[in-house]
Known about the structure:
It contains eight helices and eleven strands. The chain is α/β, with parallel strands linked by helices. The longest helix is centred in the middle third of the chain and has 15 residues, at 105-119.
Amino acid sequence: MKVLIIEDDTSIAQQLSDYLGQSGFVTHTEHDGEDGKFEGSEGGYDAILLDLGLPSIDGFSILESWRADGITTPVIILTARDSKMDVIRGLEAGADDYISKPFDLDEVVARLRTNMRRTNNHTTSTLSYNNVSVDTKMGRVTVNGTFVKLTRIEFLMVQYLFMQAGRPVSINELVEHTYEDFDNDSSVVTRHIANIRKKIGHDIILTEANRGYYVPKQEG
Ligand code: CA
């Protein structure tokens, strides 16, 4: 799952991106308002952390313009402590949630997961299909209850496909949501999928000709 961080304080931005990276997210950071606004409208993110006071254009205006353009990516605004007016204004501009600074990094991760789950209509942090379960909170995959060791990129791919269960995901989309920068050819993705299938079974991630990979939706 890919998160856009728009924050002009470079030390806060770095802290966020380090911690989110360790927590199983892929991040991209912008320090400037205009750059962030552009990136958020182009990039295919699963969630956005948006600071309000930014150079060139403020967070409220960015949010309003995204929502006016029909961009529905979950946005969590980063507000100064005790600034209730900012929270209200942010929520009215279309924010999904807010976090007050100084924030606890675990809280940021928890809010991100909750908001992403809501967008994808999942009610729990564990996603299952057949005998395979993906614990998005612990970053673990089990087959028949037994932990399976996946590389970071393999886990990110499995997690994304399970989040999107029931719908084919193209290689481009998969790359967009699991890599910070991708400068390889698509055969790399094919190889990762082949390795994942060896580890979790061949009947979990299926291929739909010309459309991509999908995990069927669990019935009932
Ligand atoms: Ca700021």
